[in-house]
Amino acid sequence: MTPTITLAKGDITRESADAIVNAANSSLLGGGGVDGAIHRRGGPAILEECRKLRASQYGKGLPTGQAVATTAGELDARWVIHTVGPVWSSTEDRSELLASCYRESLRVADELGARTVAFPAISTGVYRWPMEDAARIAMETVRSATTAVEEVRFVLFDDRAYEVFARQVG
Ligand code: AR6
Fold first, then answer.
1. Using a 6 Å cutoff on CB, does residue 122 contact ligand 1?
2. What angle do CA 145, 76, 147 make, to 5 degrees?
3. Is the CB of residue 125 below 6 angstroms from any atom belonging to ligand 1?
4. Residue 124 DSSP one-character state
5. If you measure from the C-alpha of residue 120 to the centroid of ligand 1, how many angstroms do you get, rounded to a whole number?
């Protein structure tokens, strides 16, 4: 099945969904942007599980393009799915890694049984990916995914990001 795609504007940590996706970094130990907001509002239980993941199967960190789930702590969700987007490069095409973030997050969501998943615009902040291109990749990847997830909600932080994604929805 193909999920229904919806758009929302604002802070992803205010969303209610089965799973909220975090635009993390490989360390899984927090950062700025979405990552900082999720750990702040979600509370210490998320970081605690991230530390356990680093002490077990992700000793070297979570590779770019992959995804892993933890509790959502105090967020209005059952899980946070952490994924690591690629840093934008003008000399190297890393699109496949960005697509992989969406695909792998949906695969993890399926394993969990999540039916509603909220995504931020991965890599478009600190990692500098141009919004238009990121929106195209996000949308194409979700549209072509085979998943039991029923709703994919893109949560865009500001008007500009929202409009760029809205144009992709058509
Ligand atoms: N809710 C929704 N969207 C947000 C929020 C929020 N609370 N805060 C920022 N955005 P970013 P990245 C938007 O930087 O580019 C962290 O330090 C933001 O405007 O969060 O993948 C991690 O630890 C942008 O459009 O993620 C990594 O080191 C989009 O979310 C690194 O940043 C993604 O911005 C990951 O960088």
1. yes
2. 15
3. yes
4. S
5. 7
Residues 6 or more apart in contact with residue 128 via CB below 8 angstroms: 87, 88
Hey, what are 69's tokens? 């789930």
Write down all domains in the chain, each with its CATH number in brackets: 4-169 (3.40.220.10)
Count each helix (H run) and each strand (E run) in the chain, helices first.
5, 6
Task: Name the CA dihedral angle for 40, 4, 134, 105, rounded to a multiple of 10 degrees.
Answer: 60
Cα 74 to Cα 31: distance, rounded to the nearest angstrom: 18
With both helix axes pointing from N to C terminus, report the angle between 44-55 and 33-42 in degrees, rounded to the nearest 10.
110
On average, the pLDDT of the chain sits at: 98
Q: Is the CB of 19 under 6 A from ligand 1?
A: no
Q: Give the pLDDT confidence of 120-169 residue by residue, as tens digits.
A: 999 999 999 999 999 999 999 999 999 999 999 999 999 999 999 999 98
Residue type, 32: G
